[in-house]
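Re: duplicated header lines in exported structure tokens

Our pipeline writes sequence and tokens for each protein into one text file. With two proteins the header for the second block appears twice in some exports. Here is an export where it did not happen, for reference. First protein block:
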Amino acid sequence: MGLSGGLERGDSGMSLQQRLAAVAEAILPTTHEDDGSLTVQHDGTFSSLRVVTIAEGLDMVALTQMLAWDLPLDAKLRATVGEHAHQTLLGTISLTEKGAATGGNSRKQADVLLRYNFPAAGLTDEALGTLILMVLSTGADVRRALLG
């Protein structure tokens, strides 16, 4: 498995990582991280975008979006997240349980994330940006439903 991070150059002369950065910067507040990933903000959420090379010629964009964090973990939250996970087509919604909160509060907490990986070869910049916004908008909709 190659780990070049999409540095192979396409016909445009730009690597997928460079194209991803240019597309993200054009549509969202974007921060370049030291590890090469991008952090973007959209509608109350933040996300990590990175290029991962699975095999020669197969570069994937890996998107992880934090939808909500430090939520009280209960049966209602589990059911709501499960419902959204079942209904969501662009990405996988997951619940990550955390240990008991500090400060004397013994209740468990959870974070809710959306993950979506997709091959980006052949996508125009416009299509890449549209797909990213569609996924991030789905996550923002789930966030609103979780937080009421």
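Second protein block, exported in the same file:
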Amino acid sequence: MFDDAVPYSDPACPTRVIVVAIDASKHAQKAFDWALDHMCRGSGDASGVLDEIVLLNCRPVAATPSVPVGDEIFAGAVISSNQDYQAWAAEQTRIESHTLLKKYAYRVMERNKGVIVRAIALEGDTREELCNAAKQLRAECVVMGSQGMSLVSKLMVGSVSDHVLHHASCPVIVVR
């Protein structure tokens, strides 16, 4: 079950699912624009197949801060539970993700009449979540941006686009 940011119902006709991975970066903006300019066919082709643009945004799982218990620094202090903080942080990132997804979804609706739009907020490891969602959605392709990391950065941190490119179950277009 996906966390849809905008209302969605299954279309009655066949669709071509195009996944666009977005975040708040200029690289994602460029990939989004490219996908709309080059992948969307508007109200479908002669076969009656409609395009379904699925916007995906993945947020990390909220980290639980660790507070040393019994430390003299915190003696007598009232500290809310880690669970309260984690729930609050998770809700804040969920709201941010939904806000971003709605912004992009409305832009798709404005530019491409006749295209079905779905906006899904994911949570977890971005690399794995994007690959899993593309597979579950039976995506025809994934369009995503590249941050242009150096080789050293890719080796140290790992590139999301590189991982998706090598592990997705469908073609991946990386826009630079």
